[in-house]
Amino acid sequence: MVAVTLVDGVLADTIPVSDRGLLYGDGVFETICYRRQQLLQLPAHLRRLQQSCERLGIPLQLATIEQHLNFLFSCLPSGPEAPVEGVVKIIVTRGDGGRGYAPPTSAVSRSLIQFHPMPAQYAEFARQGIACMLCQHRVSVNPGLGGLKHLNRLDQVMGSRELVAAQNRPHVDPMLQEGLMFDNQRNLIEGTRSNVFAVIRDQLCTPDVTAAGVCGIMRQTLLAWCAGQGIGVVVRTIPADELMLASEVFICNSVLGIWPVNRLYDFTSDATRVLTDDAMARRAQRGLACQ
């Protein structure tokens, strides 16, 4: 099926050229897994959406977003053609504004809600694991925006360009599916579309994303699940050299779930790290599947 898009609750495929999300990336978004007529972790996503809008001073009525979601589902095929899985993206911008960066004093936000089919290969990657590369483009550090899922995604676009270029090389690993991104000190921040966990010297770790990167819902869910299981997780700085010594690495986000990483490639030094341990990733997959 093709994507379905609502703009302010109306079926549409265009927005005004004056929209500040288009002009300045002035907005935020959420990406949610749709499965068996349910949006997984919807309350957490809506809570983060509201908190993000509050941080940026963008007006938001969550009740309106929920009404638009219900209408979106009514637009999907039913019966045998009904999608079993999909991806729902909610975008909220500051709405229309004139020329210049200064936002209007009485902004009226705009919402875009889209439904996309779930990529068919995601289930295979969760089962088989993937390979990751170390990207050379550096993530911008800004504590004022750190953790937010805002619309300024140029760092991720540049990292994804590196990944696509590597995927198009002759004899490339067909399981190369993600690029890992670092700050200017070569400390791990995140993947181009995921958060990262690593087992280093028998300690489960994940990068601090308060100054850069996205504080993902699946990352938060994993941290809470680990706490409930008595599994210690250290949120800390992870230098690139230390990452290449990890015994286990896995990535996560709300749509793909948890993918074990089997190989790490550093193409600049022609180094490869083969990872044979996926015990923690498999345990987390099983644990979260039961929730």
What would you say this structure looks like, in words?
The protein is of the alpha+beta class. The protein folds into two domains: 4-118, 2-Layer Sandwich (D-amino Acid Aminotransferase, Chain A, domain 1), CATH 3.30.470; 123-289, Alpha-Beta Barrel (D-amino Acid Aminotransferase, Chain A, domain 2), CATH 3.20.10.10. It has eight helices and 15 strands. The strands form two sheets. Strands 7, 8, 9, 10, 11, 12, 13, 14 and 15 form a nine-stranded mixed β-sheet that branches. Strands 2-1-6-5-3-4 form a six-stranded antiparallel β-sheet. β11 (203-207), α6 and β12 (233-236) form a beta-alpha-beta unit. The chain is globular. The two termini are 29 Å apart. Homodimer. Pathway: Cofactor biosynthesis; tetrahydrofolate biosynthesis; 4-aminobenzoate from chorismate: step 2/2. This is aminodeoxychorismate lyase. Pfam families: Aminotran_4.
Rg is 19 Å
- The total count of helices amounts to 8
* CATH class bucket of the largest domain: Alpha Beta
- So what's the overall shape? globular
| Share in helix | 25-40%
Proportion of residues in β-strands: 25-35%
CATH topology of the largest domain: D-amino Acid Aminotransferase, Chain A, domain 2
Mind telling me which CATH architecture of the largest domain this is? Answer: Alpha-Beta Barrel
Name the structural class.
alpha+beta
Q: H/E series, N to C?
A: EEHEEHHEEHEHEEEEHEHEEEH
How confident is the prediction overall: mean pLDDT?
Answer: 95
Number of strands: 15
As residue ranges, the low-confidence spans are none
CATH superfamily annotation of the largest domain: D-amino Acid Aminotransferase, subunit A, domain 2
Largest sheet: 9 strands, mixed
Pfam family, one: Aminotran_4
Cofactor: pyridoxal 5'-phosphate
EC number: 4.1.3.38
Family: Belongs to the class-IV pyridoxal-phosphate-dependent aminotransferase family.
